[in-house]
Structure formats: C-alpha cells, structure tokens
Automatic annotation (TrEMBL):
Residues 15-220 are annotated as: Phosphopantothenate--cysteine ligase. Its cofactor is FMN; Mg(2+). Its EC number is 4.1.1.36, 6.3.2.5. One of its GO terms (molecular function) is phosphopantothenate--cysteine ligase activity. Binds 1 FMN per subunit. In the C-terminal section; belongs to the PPC synthetase family. In the N-terminal section; belongs to the HFCD (homo-oligomeric flavin containing Cys decarboxylase) superfamily. Catalyzes two steps in the biosynthesis of coenzyme A. In the first step cysteine is conjugated to 4'-phosphopantothenate to form 4-phosphopantothenoylcysteine, in the latter compound is decarboxylated to form 4'-phosphopantotheine. It catalyses: N-[(R)-4-phosphopantothenoyl]-L-cysteine + H(+) = (R)-4'-phosphopantetheine + CO2; (R)-4'-phosphopantothenate + L-cysteine + CTP = N-[(R)-4-phosphopantothenoyl]-L-cysteine + CMP + diphosphate + H(+). Keywords: Decarboxylase, Flavoprotein, FMN, Ligase, Lyase, Magnesium, Metal-binding, Multifunctional enzyme. CTP binds at residues 103, 113, 131-134, 149, 163, 167. The chain holds residues 178 to 397 of 397 of the full protein. This is Coenzyme A biosynthesis bifunctional protein CoaBC.
Amino acid sequence: IIASFQSKVLAGKRVLLTAGPTFEPIDPVRGITNLSSGKMGYAIARAAREAGAEVTLVSGPTALDTPYGVHRINVQTAQQMHDVVLSRVGGQDVFIAVAAVADWRVANASGQKLKKNGAGDVPRLDFAQNPDILAAVAALPGRPYCVGFAAESEKLLEYGEEKRKRKGIPLLVGNIGHQTFGKDENELVLFDDAGHQRLPRADKRMLGRLLVGEIARRLG
Ligand code: CTP
Ligand code: CA
C-alpha cells in the first residue's frame, strides 16, 4: 500500500465519484433521506487524490469537509446527482458510485409547506422511481471503469454477486449497510469476474486506500 502511494498509482487518471445520501423533498421544509454519512465515499475521494488522480466528487448533503485538492459539487436529489454525473462523465477514467441514492422520490411533493388541519387528516405521499445513475453510466459507449457499492442487510455474498451482474460492472464493493453507516470502520467484500474477496476490517481511510490500490491494479 505504502509503495503504491509513493508511486502515485492513479497519476494522470480522472476519477468521478458520488457520495453521501440524497434528499428527496416532500415540501419546502421537509424531505426523505437516509443514514449514509458520506465517510466511505469521501475517504475514497481523498485516497484517489493522494494517488495522483484528478478527482470530482458529486456529493449529497453531508457534514464532512471536502478532501484537499478534490473538486466537490453539491446536490440534494437523486435526479440532480444523475444530471451532474452525466454532464461530467465524459473523459473520466473511473466512476465510483458510493452514494446511497434514494430509489424513489416523492411524486406529489408540495410547492408550499403542508399544513395540519383540525380534522387530523394526514398527507398521502406518492412515489416515482429515480434514475439509476450507475446503470446509466455503465450503459454509455466508451464508459469509464465502473465501481459500484452495495449495502445489504442480509445475504451479502449472494446479493452482491447478483447485483454486480445486473448492473453490468466489473467491480462491486459490498458491505452490511445499516451496521456501518456513519461509523468510522467498515468490513468490505469485493466482487469481480473472479469471484469474491474479503478485505480486512479497517477504518474507512485505510479502506479508501486499499480500494484505490485494487482499482488501479485492475485498470492496469
Ligand atoms: N445507485 C445509483 N443510482 C440509483 C441507485 C443506486 O447510482 N438510483 C448505485 C449506488 O450508488 C450503488 C449501487 O448503485 O453503487 C447499488 O445500489 P443499491 O441501492 O445497493 O442497489 P439497487 O440497484 O438500488 O437495488 P436495491 O436497493 O433494491 O438493493
Ligand atoms: Ca437502492
């Protein structure tokens, strides 16, 4: 690892990442989000930059500082994240989808703040499916090397392999999601053509470096 960082394994490469949660509005003051902290994605962005890459980070709302030297673009919704990624993906060598993107948005979001009424009526929310950003990038002609993440609550080995194939990507990184969201440590499993491989449990900074090494090795 140390040696690979001294030799800047991603020198001259352009890396685009998504990180953090998305926020899907219900009305101007409320919305639906998830427990992703952004720590894993930011750690990978930092490690990629340290390895010599030019790094663009498309981030949902987080409480994290931008890693040194990383170009960060803030978004709220999955649709915004999708649009920014697709406008920036041209000329990228690597795309790493770390964000916990909302699968659905509120289709009947209100332009005004929803108000209680005396009768105790509750609002009804309708949902629409969001675009799959990773699948959209993976389907591009001349696509970058695509890396996906999967946070599962069970059957990680089975779902991870299935998800990698369904998304049509060469590398997928799996973890048991709800146990690691917001934590400083993580336990990752890599899925690729050759099968799966567990990475040692470590803090996210270290895992970011390990993953950058794994990606650089596969880029050749
Ligand atoms: N992803 C994405 N855009 C979406 C949903 C997911 O780019 N609208 C990306 C995530 O960033 C992650 C990968 O796809 O890299 C897998 O996300 P995940 O939620 O685990 O998979 P889904 O295909 O959404 O399936 P499900 O949530 O039903 O398990
Ligand atoms: Ca999902």
